[in-house]
Amino acid sequence: MRRILKGLTLAMVAALALSAARLPVGTPIHVRIDQSISSATAHSGQTWQGTLASPVVVHGRTVARRGTPVRGRVVEVRRSGRLTSPGVVGLRLTSVRMNGVYTPVHTNIRVRQGHSHKKRNAEFIGGGAAAGALIGGLAGGGKGAAIGAGAGAAAGTAGAAATGKKNVSYPAESVLTFRVQ
Question: By residue range, what is the domain housing residue 14?
Answer without folding.
Answer: 2-115+164-179
